[in-house]
Specification:
Elements lengths: L3 H16 L2 E6 L5 H13 L3 E6 L1 H10 L13 E6 L5 H13 L4 E7 L2 E3 L1 H8 L4 H26 L4 H25 L1
Length: 187
């Protein structure tokens, strides 16, 4: 018979699983208390990221309750799960930052983004992506260049503006129609 505490824990995990954009299973065995404190500090600084040490059986029950059975593959042995709720790269970046400075046994094992399973190599690559606002700024900059070039070309093609081009086009079309009408009358 499940205890009230376990029921609450499963419900809490189910909520996190449903809300997260990405979940990363990490290996934390061998970390000393001060290293765990430092890890929690780095995770707190990352926006939209949480770290939870989970009991495998309860996590699997929560994954099934959340209708995300792929999440159950994350837990094997002692596991701490990093949940990312906003930027999918944020948890991987935070873990990579911690691993660079800590030089201990902490490691990313496996991740789930949507329904896709991510290997440790995928997670390491994901950690190298810039933050979402920077990616949006890069995309906007990449789009702005060609649009500015196109506007410059139009400016050169239409020194008197688009209204003048339209007037000239209508006048030319009218002249072509008149010439064709005369051809047809003469035939």
């Amino acid at each position: 018979m499940p205890t009230e505490k376990k029921i609450e824990l499963v419900e809490e995990l189910r909520d996190r699983i449903e809300r997260c954009e990405i979940a990363i299973a990490t290996e934390y065995r061998g970390l000393k208390v001060n290293e765990m404190v430092e890890l929690h500090r780095v995770i707190r600084e990352a926006e939209g990221v949480e770290l939870r040490v989970v009991k495998n059986r309860l996590f699997k029950i929560a994954a099934e309750a959340a209708k995300r059975p792929e999440m159950a593959k994350l837990v094997e042995g002692p596991t701490a799960i990093m949940f990312g709720f906003e930027d999918v790269a944020a948890p991987a970046r935070a873990a990579a930052e911690y691993m660079k400075t800590a030089r201990n046994d902490f490691a990313m094992r496996l991740g789930v983004m949507g329904t896709q399973l991510l290997s440790a190599a995928d997670l390491t690559e994901l950690a190298t992506l810039p933050p979402k606002p920077e990616l949006i700024a890069r995309l906007a900059g990449a789009l702005q260049g060609p649009i500015a070039n196109l506007a410059g070309l139009f400016g050169k093609l239409m020194p008197h503006g688009p209204v003048r081009l339209l007037d000239d086009s209508v006048t030319t079309l009218a002249g072509l129609l008149d010439a064709r009408a005369e051809q047809l009358e003469g035939a």
